Every structure is written in structure tokens, then in C-alpha cells.
């Protein structure tokens, strides 16, 4: 694809590369390239650097502080960030709730929330799923009844990613009082996580890391002015947000970077008299993934172009989500195969800068299997891949 860049696009790519080489903090870069967990402070520090450069919000219209980039520019930016080892932007504020606020929010809500999201002054999380409402999201049971100029919220959200970092949560709640699957009784609320009555229970993922939570609401009072749009119209806004989320989950740039890294590692891994990269079975698998990833890149460019002109991505976001996560998981498998038994011991301390003990595996191998297991999630969250296939059947194939 690089061969097709115009001169202006090549100049833009050089500008991004120079910015990254001068501004990406070395400690953060190292963590990303080694697959170590980033702290909240790491993520916020990097996003504030992007903000100061005016590059925090690639998907926002310029009038709200977005970059106004073309689809190709966005793709160049994402790719260069991934190759340089920059963290991916935490999506909940900048990529998920912000498009809902600038599309459906009141002027007062735009002024109140967008500047802090743009500057990464606040951390958002997503309160959609519930213990008995995941794929079947419309059957959610968290209630919000009206009490004067407040809603009183009761219920439990689950799988809420990084809620323990969050200052605010955007929630789907049932305002109509009715139960069942009535979508016209669902509203979209913005809730301050510091409000009395909100408690969290951690859920540990396979790597022992606190990534997700349950969020409990016990008579939580939320001002009515924090409702997005009309009461009972939350389902419409929620679906728009989901198409942005699914487009984002495709993570094409990240996969391209991981594939390049796999090529380097396999090229340095002995296999008989040659290297793993020259092993015909491995090379065949690698080539298939590389070709499919290239095809996905073009689909992503088409989708990003629609977003640039102000449209929400359509059902093609489901195609991106399915293929993007399947390919990412295939690339994880390549990394696990390269790491082989070197990836079995879990020794995260070997990756610390001051480690001076015996190295029992390569640094690259240490996190390979963990990444493999952790990333099984990507075909589940944002709406499982089976549900995306149902959407394609209905919305694209008309079945
Ligand atoms: C790591 C992680 C992070 C997450 N983060 C968040 C978050 O921050 N905020 C949030 O709101 N949610 C979050 N989620 C929740 C996620 O969106 C749900 O897990 C997902 O929608 C699936 O719902 P479920 O877990 O209830 O599974 P279920 O809906 O119970 O599904 C179980 C299985 O049945 C299949 N299935 C269900 N219905 C159908 C059907 N009609 N046709 C075919 N197959 C079907 C599913 O594909 C799945 O394989 C996260 C999930 C994970 C794993």
C-alpha cells in the first residue's frame, strides 16, 4: 500500500514518524513493545501528548477539536503509532461516548463534556452489559425512575472494562418501567462514578490482571440533564456507538505491527538448519494471514472514509469486527508458535528494567501465551462475532 501514497501523504507519514521519535516516552514504548500492562498514568500521559499536538481525536469533526484527517491519513497515523510502540488510545471517551455526545447531545452537554474528553482529563467506561443481558442487550434490567429533576438508578452492569480507573460511565438504563425487551423504554445516561451508591467488584482475567469489573448501582441519583437526547431513545444512540466500537475493535494497524514483529522473530528462531520463517508450513500460514490482512485494510479504509464525512459506520463495521478479531487471534497463534515452550513460564519480572537474574526465555516469549489467552476476548466483546454474523445476515444479505 505504501507505494500508492501521494507525495502529501508521504510527507504526512514523515511528520508522524518524526513526532513519534521525538515525543513517545521511551518507558511507555518499551512496555508496549514487550506487551507489558500499561498503568492509567501511562495511558493518560501519552494521550495528553497527542492532545497537545492536536492529534488526540482522529475521528472527531474539526469544529469540536478533531483532526479532520482523511481515511488514509488516519490509517497512516494508526500504523506509524503501532510500529513505533505507541499505546492505543483508550476508546471509551475519545472513540465511543464522544461521537454520541457530539451527534445527539445538547449544546450544554457538548460544552461540558467534550473538552475534558479531548484533553484526557476524565476517564470513561462503558455500562451496557449486565449479568443477564449481553448478546441480548435489549433485555437489560437496570432501572432509572424519575424523582423530580433526577433519575434514581438501580441495577448491576458487568464486564465493565477498567471501571476502577473511571471518573464517568455511560449507561443504558430502563426508564419506561416496563421489563422484557422493549427497546423504546431504554435511555442513555452519563453518570459520575463518584456519586454515592456506586460500588465495584473486580473480575480478574486469565492473566490475573484486573481488567474488568461489576458495577453496582444502589439508589444512585443522576441529574436528568445527564440524559443524552430523548427519554426512551437510548437504543438508537447505543447502536451508533456500537458501530464506532466495532470499527475500532478491528485494530488493523495493531495487527499489521504484530505480524511484522512475528516475521522478525520467526526469522531469528532456529528451525533445523534454517529459521522458522523458512519452514514451509509456517511460511504458508504467515502468507495467508498477510494476504487477508491486506484485504481487510481496504475494507477499513472504505469505512473510515464514511466516518470522515460524518456518517456512522454501517453494517460493514460488523465485517471489520469479525475479520479483524479473527486475524488478530491468528497472529497471536503465530506468536505462540514462535515462543513455543519458552512462553510457558510466567515471569513478568524478567521484563523489568532492573532485572539481573537468569533469563529463562526470550523477552518476546514471556507474554506470548498470555496475549493469546487474553485476546480470546476480542471475538466476544463489542457484540460477539456470532451476533455480528446475524447482523450481516439481516442488514446486508436481507435474510
Ligand atoms: C474482556 C471483556 C471486556 C468487556 N468490556 C465491556 C465493557 O467495558 N462494557 C460492556 O458493557 N460490556 C463489556 N463486555 C461485554 C461483552 O459485550 C459481552 O460479553 C458480549 O456482548 C457477549 O455477551 P455475554 O457475555 O452475556 O454472552 P452471551 O450473550 O450469554 O453469549 C454466550 C454465547 O452464545 C452466543 N450467542 C448468544 N446469542 C446468540 C444468537 N442470537 N445467535 C448466535 N449465537 C448467540 C454468543 O455468541 C456467545 O458465544 C466485555 C466482555 C469481555 C469478555
Unreliably modeled segments: none
Structural class: alpha+beta
What's the Cα radius of gyration? 22 Å
The main β sheet shows up as: 4 strands, mixed
Domain module count: 3
Domain Acyl-CoA dehydrogenase/oxidase C-terminal: 232-396
Keywords: FAD, Flavoprotein, Oxidoreductase
Domain Acyl-CoA oxidase/dehydrogenase middle: 125-220
Family: Belongs to the acyl-CoA dehydrogenase family.
Summarize the structure.
By secondary structure, the chain is an alpha+beta fold.
Write a structural description.
Belongs to the acyl-CoA dehydrogenase family. Residues 232-396 form the Acyl-CoA dehydrogenase/oxidase C-terminal domain. Residues 125-220 form the Acyl-CoA oxidase/dehydrogenase middle domain. This is Acyl-CoA dehydrogenase family protein. Residues 6-119 form the Acyl-CoA dehydrogenase/oxidase N-terminal domain. With 399 residues, this protein is of the alpha+beta class. It folds into 3 domains: 2-89, no CATH class; 122-234, Beta Barrel (Butyryl-CoA Dehydrogenase, subunit A, domain 2); 250-396, Up-down Bundle (Butyryl-CoA Dehydrogenase, subunit A, domain 3). It contains 13 helices and 10 strands. The chain has helices at residues 7-23, 26-34, 40-53, 71-84, 91-104, 107-118, 234-249, 252-267, 280-308, 316-339, 363-366, 368-374, 385-396, and strands at residues 124-127, 143-147, 150-157, 168-174, 186-192, 198-204, 210-223, 227-228, 270-271, 274-275. The strands form 3 sheets. The chain has a 4-stranded mixed sheet. Helix 4 packs across helix 9, helix 5 (91-104) runs antiparallel to helix 6 (107-118) and helix 8 packs antiparallel against helix 9 (280-308). The mean pLDDT is 92. Residues 125-129, 134-135, 159-161, 212, 377, 380-384, 386-387, 390 line the site of flavin-adenine dinucleotide.
